[in-house]
Amino acid sequence: MAIAGGVTKISGTPSSLDLAAVTFYTVVTVFCGWALWTAQPLREPKWHRIAWFALAILFAVMAGSRILGVEEMIRDTLRTAMREEGRYADRRQIQAVVVSTAILSIAAVAAFWAWRTGRHLRGRRNQTIIVAMAAGASLVVLMSLRIVSLHAIDRLLYGPIKLNWVADVGASLVVAIAAIVYVKRVRSLR
Predict the structure, then answer these.
(1) 25 touches 62 (CB < 8 A)
(2) What's the predicted TM-score (pTM) here?
(3) Three-state DSSP class for 2?
(4) In sequence order, what DSSP letters do the residues of 76-120 get, joined into one string?
């Protein structure tokens, strides 16, 4: 463990990219808090407030995780455990099963959720929150893929296109923009 700027980082000093990500996640957290703050006194549906609160917590946790190196710590712990069990050489088969199961399960749940909510929810405010929640969920999937660190997925995420950055920044921007749009839509109704 190292001390970096008064914060104990589990695996080394935060890089400039880590600090940029923490700043960005913090800004998105503020936007989600702003949407929550706007929804509260205007008596928007309870699920709106819960969704914005959950998204704010997600981004706050992501900021903390990035500054402390939690993803790297979990990945290193899993690798160490696999080495100790003598299964590190077989990790690609294990990772393939885990990733395939996770992706199929998440896709099935997401499809069911989109179908179910899409049938019942109308209105731009509701749609804005659904988009923000889907973007937040995609970030959880991305973090899971980075932790499992399957070689083929790594080549896709960290290759020349840097899909990892595109997905991370893109989904975070979607949440931030959705929060801003939500606030404007709610305020325009009052």
Answers:
(1) yes
(2) 0.72
(3) strand
(4) HHHHHHHHHTT-GGGHHHHHHHHHHHHHHHHHHHHHHHHHHHHHH
